[in-house]
Structures are given as structure tokens and as C-alpha cells.
Amino acid sequence: MRHNPPAMRPTMRMYQRQRVKTRTLSAQRIIFTSSILISVVLGFILFINLSDSKFTKAAANGDYRSASSGNWSSAGTWEKFNGTSWEAASSSPTSADGVIEIQSGHVVTISVDVTADQLSINSGGALAVNATKYLYIADGTGTDLVVNGTLNINGYLTQNVNSTIELNGTAVLGSSGSAILQIETGATFTINNGGTFTTNGGALPTTSGKWIVNSGGTYISSANGDALPYAAWNTGSTCEITGVSNNGVTNLNQTFYNFKWNCISQASAVNFAGALTTINGDFTLSSTGSSDIALSNAINSTINLSGNYTQTGGTIKGNTRTGGKTTLNVAGNWTHTGGTFTVGGNVSTVTTIVFNKSGIQTFTASGGTISGNVDITVNSTSTLDIGTSTVSCRNFTASSGSTLCISSASGIVTSGSPNISVSGTTNFSSSSNYIFNGTAAQVTGAGFPSTVNNLTVNNSSGVTLSNNVTVAGTLALTSGIVTTGSYELKTTNTSVSSITGYSSSNYVIGYLRRRVSANGSYDFPVGTAANYELVNVTLAGMTGFTEILSSFTNASPINIALPLTGVSITGTEITDMLDYGYWTLTPNSLMLGGTYSVTLNEKGHGNSAAEAAAYCVLKRENALFSWQSLGTHDNLTQSETGGVAVATRSGLTSFSQFGIGKGAGPLPIELVYFSAKPEGSIVKCSWQTASEVNNDYFTIERSTNGKDFAAAGTVDGAGNSSTTLTYSFTDETPAGGISYYRLKQTDFDGMFSYSKIKSVIFKTEKTDEVISISSVAPNPFTENFSVTYSMQQEAEVNISLMNASGQIVYNQTQTALQGINRFDYTEGFNLPNGMYFVKISFDKNVQVQRIVKN
Questions:
Q1: Residue of 37, 128, 182, 798 with fewest CB within 10 Å of its CB?
Q2: How many whole angstroms separate alpha carbon 259 and alpha carbon 305?
Q3: pLDDT for 204-226, tens place per residue?
Q4: Distance (Å, rounded) from C-alpha 652 to C-alpha 668?
Q5: DSSP 8-state symbol, 174
Q6: At 657, phi and psi to the nearest 5?
Q7: 3-state class (DSSP) for residue 742
Q8: What is the Cα–Cα distance from 434 to 443, expressed in whole angstroms?
Q9: For residue 571, what pLDDT band results from cuts at 50, 70 and 90?
Q10: d(CA 550, CA 676)
Q11: How far apart are CA 227 and CA 239, in angstroms?
């Protein structure tokens, strides 16, 4: 074992003593801190035991509290604080003493006259003033009487000058029928949140004292013939009438907050006589016994209700005077589940319920009755949500700017299963707004107005039109599909945003008409039950029409009698069309000027192209005509994403039917034009490209019948180019009569496409000798025209009419006599406007004359 050197030992002993001292100080600190904490806790517990919600100060010398239930005047009922502790009192308290508390669980009875202040009835405690006995509330320090428990006044409670009472619990006046509450001048009686004051046969003599009923406080008049106190009925306060049997209440000419009437023993009519004019909160009617109440018996009266109207029973009359008129302005919700709302007087007595909130008001009716000359008006600022309830009245008016929300499956109807049931008339302003927000499928209803301001569809199950509907403001497709059937849904607001919210879930099935401006991009959200088929029209400098009617037809766009032939886009032949359907766009009058572009969005087709660049827009007059490529095509505007094929065409000048065509592959060149024109004894062919991709060469093909083509020559292409290039070819040996030319473009990989067919006319000597057309008139024509021609010999001639692409649209054989002959054409009403050719042929003799249809 190792020992420390002697010199080190004193030092070590000193260190050990310091450690002992440190441990002692630490223990003392812990004991001291614990003592303080225990004292605080005990003090807090004592504070709670000695305190009440309104008297939070510690007990002072001379304060009283109840020791048990008993008589006020008995000393044994009380304890008194001597400055240190509570001890048995030697006498009962008076106003000369300090705070007086009636503790929870104790009931103190006043059987002799008592004067007190700083009196507190704690929650769970009670004070009863016996019949003929007085409780005088003197004006002392602070609040003179605070009721958190129960105060029963069977005798007299007199509140002296400048004294104050706060009722947070329950006070009942006059259970014996002879009690009186007297509030002297300058005194204040306040009913706070949770406080209820009930007059149960007692009396409130007219005083100049002040009543205050705060939020959550309730004054109940349960005595027949009560005079209500003139009170400050603050926000959230309630005045409730329960005790009327054959006499009403007086002092109704005040501004109330919540007002309730529930008099189950009422046996006689009570007329407010127009005194009740302003209710800043809710009005609730539960019972009028076997009789009724009337709001007024004046010629003209108005009641303003800022909150909700609720009627679960009883009978209320708006006016009982002959010819009297009452207006009930309601700014809250209307709930009528029992009882009757009607009028008295005679046939000229009217009550008008006006919904006038600046916002949404709900109307709920189930079991209640509105009868007689009761009219309902929805003001311009209000949105009345009817839901599936029925609004019953004499006349119903939706004012300009008002809004009706309808959840009924039958929409707006006035008979059958009505949501607006009238014995008189309905007046729907054309400037009113309507919202369909049901959960089951809805119809607009036979009573729905033909013209509205704003229309909102917010029903995922959809809405079906019951008639033509015109929307002057905004059509909001918030949720669900609108089905028009044979009717039209029309917007007259020319703003491009007059239709909002449309999407693949919210659109129109059927006929959608839009009023348009000369310039603007207008969407037409149409489709089928299965698919959304959006079409856009962008107008530029348009003149001649003001509206466009749109629809989508789910059917094969190709008429088997009119196969898709001779149609090409930028040199590529269009071989097919997307098979889900086509669009019809119809203006209300002819387009006279400007141009437009159309963008088609097709979904549901089962024959997508291999590449979206093969898509294009095709156009036809109607199903009796062939599809054509009109306007300007741009390869960069075609796409397909998520099964939706998109194609755009610009530079259009007329409206009709539209569909999406497709080629065998991407369109390799962007052909600006191709032309073939006679120049003396030759034909000059010219064309221009804006761009070329893998373009090997061009072939110029010629035909004499428009069907069978042969190569007339070739020209090399540029391969790849992004600049404008111009080409030409000369046919040195053209055929006589009419010839047809087309441009064939061939890629390096052998793929090819065709341009539109161009026709060229050459006269031959033999034609002049045998056939001669004298006239074709009228030219231009609209429906009919006549051809006068001469023949050198009698023969069977063929007369045909061809369009500008060389397609034969009419053909007939006629026996021509030697000399002058005439042929009448009468079927032009089916032809689209444009240039045509009349061709008369016999053997190898041909004569052609150009004619135009307007």
C-alpha cells in the first residue's frame, strides 16, 4: 500500500471537510425549494377554495360565506372570516359587512327583509326570496350581486340607485305569481353568457333602471301579459316568449337580437301591431297553442330580420288588416318544418317575404305550410339555395341579379313534383342567375326561363335541357355534362371567356351556340356521352355573321357513296379519316369577309395514324358532298397525346362539317401551290414548296378522263430544304379538249404523295366542226342553268358537269338533233359554291365551257 507524504495530510483533511459542507448546503437548498413549492401549491388550493369566478380576491376580515343551507337571518347559516381563518358567525350578514358568498350545494332562504351588496351566489348554490319579503341590493364596492347559481324571487327584489347585478346563472321571478323586480334609476341589471332570467308571473314595474342582455344571455317572458324590459339586446342575446295564453306582451317596439315565440298554452290571437320591426339575430316560432300571432295590422309595415327564420309549429300571419301590406326582409336562412305562415285580412291583404342577404341563403321546407296571399321575392344580392325543398307561395319573383340554387332532379317546375309551387305567377328575370347543384341527374324543368344571366352546372351526374336556354352572362361548367337533346344551349356574351370550367369531365352533348365577335378564339366544348370532342374557332376580321352553332356527330365521317379519293395535303394523298365522328359548325348567316382557323380534338377513334404528322383537317358541305382539303395546312400543328388527335387548318372562309383525315405517313413536303395553265400550244406546270424532307423527285402526271394518269415528265427535288423553292415543267404535247394534271412527290425511300388535280382546256379543230356551245346561262348561277349548243349532225351526246378537281358531279346522255339544241340543268341546289365545267362530248369531239355557282 502506498501512503501519502506527511506534508500532504492536512491538505486532504481540509478537502474532505469542504465536501461534507457542500453536501449539507445542497440538501438545505432542496428542502428550502420544496418548502416554497408546497407553500405555493397549498396557497393556490386555499385561493381556489376561497374564490369564485366573479370574486377572485382572497378573503378579508369581515367577509361572510354560507356554512350550510338555512335561513339568511340565522347566524348558524354563516361563517365569518376573522382575518386569519373562518369561524362560526355570531350574526347574519348585512350590507355593512364585506363579501357575502353562498357556496355550492347550499340553499339560503330570505324570510325577513335583507339589505346586501357584494353578494355572490356561487355555481351550485341558491338564494330564495320568500313571498312578501324584500331583498334590497345596495350600491357597494364592485358588482353588488353576482348570480352564478340560482336566484328565486318569490317576493321583492329591489335594486337601489347605482347598484349592479350580473346574472351568469338562473334567476326566476314570481313563481308564486306575486313577485316584483324593481330597478331604480341608475341601477343596472346585466344578463351575461349562460345567464337566464325568467318572468314566471312576476312584474317589472316601469323604471328608469338599465337592462343589458349580453351574448349568450336569455330573457324569458313566461307570464301572460308581460311588459318586456327596455333592454340593450346585444349581439347574441335572446328574448323568448313562453307564457302567453290570452294576452300578448308589450314593449315590442325595441331592437332585439334573437327573438323566440313558444307559447303552447296560447288560446287567443296576439297581434304585434307592427311594433316588432327589427330583429338583428334569429326569429324562431315553435308554438302558438290553438291560436296565432300576427306581425302587423297596419296598412304598411316592415320587419327586418337579420338572422335566420325558423318555424317548427304555430301559426303566423303577416298582416290582418283589410288591404294591409307587410314586408318581411330576411337576411338569413329559412327553415320551415311545421306550422303555417299566412295572412289575415281580405283578398287584398298581402305579405311579401324578401330574401335580401348579400350572399347565400338556404331554404328548407318540410312539413310547414305557406298559404294565402304570401309572395316571395329574391333580391338582386341574394343567392337562395332551394335544394330539394318546395317553395310554396302565391307569386314568386327572382329579381335581376338574384341567384337560385336548385338540387331537385326535376329542375324548376311549378306542378307535379314542384320546387316552386305558386297559386299565382312566377317572374324570373332574364338577368337572374341559376345553379344546378344536385347529386342525382337533373333536368332544367318546364318552368326554367328561356333566357338567364349566368348558368352554373355543378352536378357530376349531369343536367339535361327541357327547352332552349340562352345564357347572357357566363356559362360555368363546374362539374358534369349538359345534354341538350333537340334543344340548344346558347351564349350571347361575345367574350371568349363566356364559357368557363369546361374539361374532359364537363362539356356539352348536343347543340352549343355561341355569339362571336369579328376577332377572337372561341372554344366549343362538345362531345358524346363517352368522349370530350373540343373544337376551337379563331376568327380574324370576320364579317357577315354573329353566331356559330356547333355539334359533334358520333358516326363514320365517310359516306360509302362518296369515297375519299383525290384528296391530298402538301403532296401526300389522304387515304382515311379518324372513325369516331365529325363536327358541324353552322353560322347564322353567310361569312362575307375575313378568315378563320379551326382546331379539332378527336378522342375515341380506333384508327390512329402511325405518326401524328399524317393528320389534317378535311371539310365538306354536308354528308351529300365529298370531303375536301381547303384552307392552309401546317404540318407543325398536328399532334396526338393520350388518345386525343389534334389537327388545325387556317385560312378558311366558310363553315360546314369538319373531320380529321390521315395520310399513309408523315407529309414530307410543304407544298405552297401547284398550277397547270395553257400557254399557246403548251401547258405550263408550276409549283412551290415551303420546306422539303427527304424529297427525291417530282413526277408530273397527265390524264384525259381525270382517273387514269400517266407520267408526262420528272423534276429533281432538293432533298432537304427549309427555304421556299419554285419549280416548273412544260408539257409540249398536251391533249385536246380537257386534260388533268397532278404532281406526284417521291421520297428517297420510295414513299410518294399527290397534289390536288388541276384541269386544263384545249380546243381542237374537230370539236369546233362537230360541236359548238353557244351559251351557258345564267353564269354565275344559283340553282339552275341552260346550255345552248349546235351539232353538225344528229348524234347521242354525253353531257357532264365537273368540279374544279375534275370530279364528275352530274352526267347524262341526250339525243342531239342537227342544228341548235338545248339542255336544262335543275339540280344545282345541292352543289357547293365554286367553279365548274360543262362538258359535251361525242366520239372524240369535246366542247367545254366554264361556269360558276354563287
A1: 37
A2: 10
A3: 876 678 999 999 999 999 989 88
A4: 23
A5: -
A6: -105, 150
A7: strand
A8: 13
A9: low
A10: 38
A11: 12
